[in-house]
Amino acid sequence: MKLSSGSLARLINELAGLPGIGPKSAQRLAFYLLNAPLETAENLANAILEARKNIRYCSLCANLTDAEMCPICADPRRNREVLCVVEEPKDVLAMEKVRAYKGLYHVLHGAISVRDNPGPDQLTIQQLMNRLQKGQIKEVILATNPTMEGDATALYLAEQIRPLGVKVTRLAHGLPVGASIEYADEITLTRALEGRQELNKQ
Amino acid sequence: MKLYKTEAIVLRTINLREADLLVVLFSREYGKLRVMAHGARKPTSRKRGFVQPFCYSRFLLHKGREMDSISQCEGVELFPELLQSLRTIGYASRLTGLVENLTAEGEANEKVFLLLLQALRLLARGDAEILARAFEVKLVSFLGYRPVLQHCAVCRRPLAGVQAAFSAAAGGVLCSACAARGAQPVIWCRRGTVETLKLFLRWELARLENCKVDAQARRELKAILENYIEYHLGYRGTAAEFWRHPGGPGNDHA
Predict the structure, then answer these.
(1) CA B25 to CA B21: how far, in whole Å?
(2) What is the pLDDT along chain B (254 residues), one digit of tens a residue?
(3) Pairwise CA distance, residues A117 & A111, whole Å
(4) In angstroms, rounded to a whole number, what is the distance separating the alpha carbons of residues B199 and B235?
(5) Interface residue of A145, A149, A155, A185 to substitute, partner B, most B CBs within 10 Å
(6) Which residues of chain B are within 8 Å of residue A190 when distances are taken between CB atoms?
(7) pLDDT score recorded for residue B254
(8) Closest CB from B50, B238, B248 relative to A115
């Protein structure tokens, strides 16, 4: 079968351009969409277009949303004195899954890379500083990734926030649940030791 | 199984796909290598901690068709102290960036490997700026671009006077007569700065802790070496933006 032109080839090509989808999976998806009822294809196409057109950054926390303000920022039950700074919108989802955090978020959209872009200006740091200057926020939790870039970002932010007198904390580093100490690396173990907790606290 | 072992320092990591990491290594036995660390960004990965930038680890690598991948690894020295301040992160990135950009893939150079290792060990303890400058001049020398410092690079007569001129194009210092002829653009500096450069080449990195260098000489050394590396090896530090940012690590004498 020759597929170098025509709408089927185009569909396969477009699908193959998505991350994690190779030529074979693209072909499978394309044939599925062709055999499924027309609605399936229409729904998918509309969902993609709608998301692309409507999703934008929340005016407060820079998370992805389809309204002016994201549901978390708009929720009156959230604690407005605690702010959790994360690198990506994906990280907000991860934090929300825990259900243990009731404060607000701020999404940086990246971490400072020391050697290439993005530099501090490409992130939403200025918006973060503007939010902090309003004085309502009492604590900033830096939840950047425990990598070199994440550490650099956290150190940089801590330095920027210091003059404002807001409490700055960083997520603890330690052993992942279900792992064995045998495979823990030196850095993780050092940090886990530093951040150890008293068990028989009254 | 096509497996081979090597000891290496992680120069840089690049996020790939969902949880993979492309790791640029400088190994003792094979020089610069680009390898894949599959799944290294998952919290449960056994490799995770040992493939972070600046780590010195032992690797078991698997030869792949297009790219080799990390089969196992264990840390030797992980330098956690380097990640504790912006200044050391900045300088460590400068050093690894230089090695990554000035060496060719697959060309072993044990001197460069040991130099980088020693520099990472000392970085958090000593004067990071001086260490970085000494690293730079030693690195270019090990790569075959040692600047001429003993005498004028053009007429080979000994230097005289308190001022010296450094010309990247001529490959070293110039005497005042050759500099005045103006055939090459020069950076003027004090004679003492040239002596400091010679000292950097002669002394081991560990000894440089006792080396006193004033602010003006630091500025001159930085200008001379940056210019020299850019002229001969075509590399400018890419951290420029972060480096010059207020609060960034590079504002030693801005």
Answers:
(1) 12
(2) 689 999 999 999 988 888 899 999 999 999 999 999 999 888 778 888 889 999 999 999 999 888 999 999 988 988 888 888 888 888 898 899 999 999 999 899 999 999 999 999 999 888 888 999 999 999 999 999 999 999 888 888 888 878 888 999 889 998 888 888 877 788 988 988 999 999 999 999 888 877 888 888 999 999 899 899 999 888 877 554 455 544 455 444 43
(3) 9
(4) 24
(5) A185
(6) 80
(7) 35
(8) B238
Strand segments (E) across chain B: 3-16, 20-27, 31-37, 56-62, 68-77, 163-167, 172-174, 187-190
Cβ of B89 within 8 Å of Cβ of A121? The answer is no
pLDDT at B147 (0 to 100):
93
For A107, the enclosing helix (H) or strand (E) is strand A104-107
Residue B29: CATH number of its domain: 2.40.50.140
Mean pLDDT of A88-116: 87
Fold for the domain defined by A64-198:
Dna Topoisomerase Vi A Subunit; Chain: A, domain 2 (3.40.1360)
A6-54 to CATH, choices 2.60.40.1220, 2.60.270.50, 1.20.1270.10, 1.10.8.420: 1.10.8.420
- A185 interfaces chain B, CB cutoff of 8 Å: yes
- C-alpha B27/C-alpha B68 separation (Å) is 14
**Average pLDDT over chain A, rounded to an integer:** 86
Nearest chain A alpha carbon to B48: A185
Alpha carbon A74 to its chain centroid, in Å, reads: 19
Owning domain of residue B127: 84-146+187-252
**Which of A114, A121, A188 is opposite residue B49, by nearest beta carbon?**
A188
Do B25 and B59 meet the contact criterion of CB atoms below 8 Å apart? yes
B103/B228 same-domain check = yes
Give how far A6 is from chain B: nearest CA, Å.
Answer: 30
Query: CA-to-CA distance for A100 and A106, rounded, in angstroms?
Result: 17
The model's pLDDT over A176-188, given as tens digits with 9 standing for 90+, comes to: 887 788 877 777 8
Q: Are residues B9 and B62 in the same domain?
A: yes
| Cβ pairs A/B, distance under 8 A | 74
Among B89, B102, B236, B238, the strongest candidate for a mutation testing the A interface, having the largest count of A CBs within 10 A, is B89
**B109–A contact, CB cutoff 8 A:** no
Residue that finishes a domain, picked among B32, B55, B78: B78
